[in-house]
Amino acid sequence: MAKVLMKGNEAIAEAAITAGCRFFFGYPITPQNQIPEYMSKRLPELGGTFVQAESEVAAINMVYGAAGAGARVMTSSSSPGISLKQEGISYIACAELPCLIVNMVRSGPGLGGILPSQGDYFQAVKGGGHGDYKLITLAPSSVQEAVDLVMLGFDLADQYRNPVMVLGDGMIGQMMEPAEFSVYKKRSLPPKDWAATGWKDKSKPPALINSLFIEPEEMSAQTARMQKKYAEIEKNETLVEEYMTEDAEYIIAAYGTTSRVAKSAAQMARKEGLKVGLIRPITLWPYPSETFAKAAQRVKGILTVEMNTGQMVEDVRLAVAGRVPVAFYGTVGGFVPGQKEIIKHIRAMKEGK
Amino acid sequence: MAGFKKTSMLTDAPMHYCPGCTHGIAHRLVAEAIEELGMQDKAVGVVPVGCAVFAYNYFNCDIYQAAHGRAPAVATGAKRVHPENLVFTYQGDGDLASIGTAEIVHAAARGENITAIFINNAIYGMTGGQMAPTTLVGQVTTTSPYGRNRDTQGAPVRMSEMLAQLEGAYYIERVSLHDTANVLKAKKAVKKAFQYQMEGKGFTMVELLSTCPSNWGMSPLDSVSWLKENMISY
User: Fold this and answer.
1) Which structural domains are found in chain A, ordered by start?
2) Alpha helix ranges (H) inside A106-215
3) Hey, what CATH topology would domain B23-231 get?
4) Fewest Cβ atoms closer than 10 Å to its Cβ: which of A20, A60, A148, A215?
């Protein structure tokens, strides 16, 4: 298939279909409405199911039901809607069900605004719902990467029986770029023999999709099982892009839309004689802490750039453990950081301000 | 009773329900109806938060344990993936008539082809006897210690009547578990609801008026009398 020019949201929906997703449960919220709209048109053509739920709460619980039945299933929303889904996400994580959740982040808190933001970083990677769990979080910086990460996301979900979030923002969802869909190579995945499909095989007990472990020993064992899985994901699935970092004296840390500006800023800075590189986490959890730890041994400083008041910067600081100064530059309200501002902040670091 | 034997749809696990509680009867009715319809291999239950939270230990079929009130949404997902299965929710009045009203109303509105088994005992059992949306006016609970006050706490919600207004609801029936004749009627209603689901008729619900001797502070016998005298007339 040749490349097609598509809006990010529609490309995400088509990528899900290409990856074999035939069940979608959602609720309208700006700026992600093109995803459910696209699914409501395409899924019936393919014999799939689209349900517009009565709320985000219901939508994520329909996902719980369909995932427990063994289907490839997804939902999408934007920040306030994702807050409503947190109860369900926690249950899905504990019941160890695979599913894909797309968050096209808008500015907040509260009802906030509908313009791009990265204000949901903490919610996504630190556990937005209750209890000890991790959400695999993928952060695309282009329409093509959104397509690739949606496909990868379904595989990761199935492989590890864990919810996966694609964390975009209004910009990724609304911009148009060429995308290629014939690139999906499905991983070899374990059979879903745990699914509740009706008790046919009497040689094993009936299926139980459950997140209740009332005995302390059982809850403790389940938590340990999940943590072991998380350690494996951290070891095997961390993704990061390094750009011009080899000889860099200063590093910009940025993901998603912000990383695009950061990349241009790095190029511009080099023209001005500043040796600047970029570390772009693609998986926000698992976090590429080692890449930052290694960079800290050779660079003079790291500037974290985000569309929030400073969230990922905490993970950068944890990773470098005080070995180099870590500064922060952020914009909020839907404003996107500018290249010149980024360079100004790097110069300020250099001059020790 | 000649030839009586326990349904294979229930496990041998000892139930945790209090003495005199009608959950045991309700479980058996559901289990027997599934067995008699030959649907054991296709039955998928979705159990709630509340006293029936451990129901997965008792039903001998595939089960989901759902978040509080969300069973109809979970059942929607399960049924849409496997329409050939018999998908039922088993929910109490706190779960279905309070925190889960949006989910049950819209499952019915969509004509979702599932069956809700609604246990109404007019109180929150698992959490220790608090007021439910179905608590009767004047009824004393731990959060209505002066009796439910119509002026400040409203009158009980009639879920069956509410849902029956919706076009997607094909069959809604209220039955009671206070004596043998009514238990037999209840069994028929449950079976009928399951049959309609398998015929693809749409949303079905059976409300089972039930007792909670522990939290009502009555003996099992007084409880059935109280149910008969107070709950049926409402």
Assistant:
1) 4-188+225-236 (3.40.50.970), 241-350 (3.40.50.920)
2) 121-125, 143-160, 170-174
3) Rossmann fold (3.40.50)
4) A215
